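2024-03-11 09:14:02 DEBUG pipeline.ingest accepted 1 chain
2024-03-11 09:14:02 DEBUG pipeline.ingest length=215
2024-03-11 09:14:03 DEBUG pipeline.predict start
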Amino acid sequence: MAVVDDQPLIRAGFSMVLAGQDDIEVVGEAENGQQALDLLDEVDADVVIMDVRMPVMDGIRATERLMRRDDPPGVLVLTTFDDDEDAFAALRAGAGGFLLKNAPADEVVHAIRVLAAGESVVAPRITRLLLDRVSDRLAPANGQSERLDLLTGRERDVLGLVARGLSNAEIAAELYVAEATVKTHLGNLMAKLHLRDRAQAVVFAYESGLVRPSS
């Protein structure tokens, strides 16, 4: 994994914490987004811890560029929860989740492992709370509503329930179907919409207008 932050003490702190984990190796550090892109041209990293506000290139732009690459790493954005729009922009850019900068070490380690396994770090309920808080200040993304036409009616139902924060088991109970069926619909809709994880699915549901704040 790689650590990207413009503050040397924060980079050193993360590297020190992660160095003690048998299953995590820090392959490099960078102090801005451009350095991160250059670093990841030279080394492979499954996960990148990315600060948002940095000189030269911020973490949002760096994440967007990383997501255009073949087999991009999972990106874990560092923020404060007061920066709602930064957190939302990170998820929209393709980040697999976000953490507070003062998160406990064990929470950071757990998040890295989850992201390395291909899952999103932010639970859909938390993502929904975040989007409810910023949605009145954000315009829907162009063309997103038209992409809903790619989905079947049942896939729309599943997406809407994911956006409400329901788990697969809860969605199955709501729709009176097997949990395996929910997983199939979720996999199909994510493939059609080119979504990486459930957090991105929640973002898409808001941007497309499928769900509204607190609906």
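2024-03-11 09:14:41 DEBUG pipeline.report The mean pLDDT is 84.
2024-03-11 09:14:41 DEBUG pipeline.predict end
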